[in-house]
Amino acid sequence: MERDPPGTADMPAEMPPPEHPPPETAPPASPSPLVVLGWAAFAAHVGVGLTFYLAAGLVAPLPGVLVLWACWIGLTVAGLRVRKARPWWFVALPVVSVGVWVLVVSLGSWVFGWTA
To answer: How many Cα atoms occupy the beta-carbon half-sphere of 27 within 13 Å?
Structure first.
């Protein structure tokens, strides 16, 4: 009969489980409808920018077009910054974008006499 090495007689035969088991891998969560709606709204905002704001040169002179582009870029940056804090504002971005375009072009037409 073999003898245990000195000092190992009272050690358990099996290793105890680790104190912190490895984290279980959860299935990836599907995005919430508000997140999907937000990104769809952002795509619509880009669509508004590519149609209305880029085509503004047909209605407004270069300084007016530059003001419109600055407004669109400002709306884009503001929308991306509030995207997580206030997602409903992000959803309203394309509507606000069209409203700003109509307001600037209408005021330019009325004040400066811009014509198509």
So the answer is: 2
pTM: 0.69
Query: Cα separation of 59 and 113, whole Å?
Result: 10
Phi-psi map region of 30: left, alpha, beta (phi>0 left; psi -120 to 50 alpha): beta
Q: What share of the chain is helix, strand, coil (3-state, %, to 5)?
A: 60, 0, 40
pLDDT tens digits for range 62-80: 999 999 999 999 999 999 8
Cα separation, 105 vs 115, in Å, equals 10
Residue keyed to tokens 């910054």: 81
Cβ 101 vs Cβ 47: under 8 Å: no
